[in-house]
Amino acid sequence: MVKVNHKQAALDFLSFVNASPTPYHAVKSGKDLLASAGFKEIKERDSWSSTLHPGGKYYLTRNGSTLVAFAIGKKWKPGNSIAMVGAHTDSPVLRIKPVSKKGDEGYVQVGVETYGGGIWHTWFDRDLGVAGRVMVRGKDGNIVSKLVKVDRPILRIPTLAIHLDRKESFDFNNETQLFPIAGLVEAELNRTKGQTTDSSNDEPAKKALKAATERHHPYLVELIASEVDSKPSEILDFELILFDTQKSCLGGLLEEFVFSPRLDNLNMSFCAVQGLIESVRSATALDDDNAIRLIALFDHEEIGSKSAQGADSNTLPAILRRLSVLPAEDFGSEKSYHKVGNELDITTAFEQSLSTSFLLSADMAHAVHPNYSAKYEADHKPQINEGPVIKINANQRYATNSPGIVLLQEVAEKATEDGGDVVPLQLFVVRNDSSCGSTIGPMLSANLGTRTLDLGNPQLSMHSIRETGGTQDIGHAIRLFASFFEHYSTLAPSILVD
């Protein structure tokens, strides 16, 4: 059984989220953890038939912002089950616009665009850095993608003094009053006095698009260039977001809380990665397993998942189709591909796998708020540090049903460690007079026809720039996911539903 030190798991999560201000960084952080655990990187564009083998551990990425990893049981056969945990790498953020150079009243300002449904007033008066992906022309002429993280406060969105606006509510226009300040025009003029940009010597007079130094403030481009060891003229484009430079930390009188940005949903992404790693840490972990253990961390959930790397794309179906036909360890001739029978009929292996597989859609849940308890259904008030929350909605905003609840309960009860307690679980539904959010669960369930359950760790302040979760819940989720991977192939056949 997997043993987890809850305090250490929380500290490891802090390191993970502090290193991951963007989906690109979150994927890199996940890749680093997987590589350290012996997982090998593969590419979608390559053939897998001779590369992947039962007993192997692998990971791949799409767009640098979606990560899929899996471990193949040594008793795997084509058409067998795949146990999956799905989460997402993105969070509501402010993103720098393609043309961001702005200024007024003597200030250097940066134009930003809202991404997702953030609580935008929480972004005011915070110390903001920038991070993301930069497209750079290398010395050899090739264009490469580099990650950048300016981890110091270079931007700030100041509120208006109460003396000038005494309204009780804080209302503002997202287009005209959400621009951060980056400096003073006079200081910028003094800095550049007598300087010439290197782009005037290196770049042709006419281009399809204006240079980055024209579309954005030159000093911002210079700063980005210095972070990736390049010249400003070599910066062709970038996808940058703003992030709070205050580090995640443990909080509360007894450090029972996690105070952090991006809990939704890097908390579940981290727990998924760690759960998979813990489930295969033993050298014999895959010896008797006839299933595949898989995690999928998608980009773009916060804006509907409809992108090439979102959950509502072909990412997971394409990967599952390729995995479903992987040969067994003792595969030695073509007869296995042509034998008529439920187990080895390769023409239906994909459909057979989907019909017996299971997906845990892992996205953060709402903990009861002590100051707004009336907003919660009276008998469904999840508590922080009381374990993952099973999310249920009769209108299928969540994909959970009774067979899935029974399965997860069995998984939680098998997650004992050296005589320890089972993983605690909680149930949640929204009030009938409240709207209900949704997750990747329903869309993947519909696209795949695979049994699915929605769950997530409880938190407060969801979609704020800084959120609150539980220290113990990280360890609870890791244990739950590890137990799910360890026991799915034996538990699933005992819960009979057509």
UniProtKB/TrEMBL annotation:
InterPro entries: Peptidase_M18 (IPR001948), Peptidase_M18_dom2 (IPR023358). It catalyses: Release of an N-terminal aspartate or glutamate from a peptide, with a preference for aspartate. One of its GO terms (biological process) is proteolysis. Keywords: Aminopeptidase, Hydrolase, Metal-binding, Metalloprotease, Protease, Zinc. The keyword Protease applies. Its cofactor is Zn(2+). SUPFAM superfamilies: Aminopeptidase/glucanase lid domain, Zn-dependent exopeptidases. GO terms for cellular component: fungal-type vacuole. Coiled coil: none annotated. GO terms for molecular function: metalloaminopeptidase activity; zinc ion binding. Its EC number is 3.4.11.21. The keyword Hydrolase applies. Belongs to the peptidase M18 family. This is aspartyl aminopeptidase. It comes from Talaromyces proteolyticus.
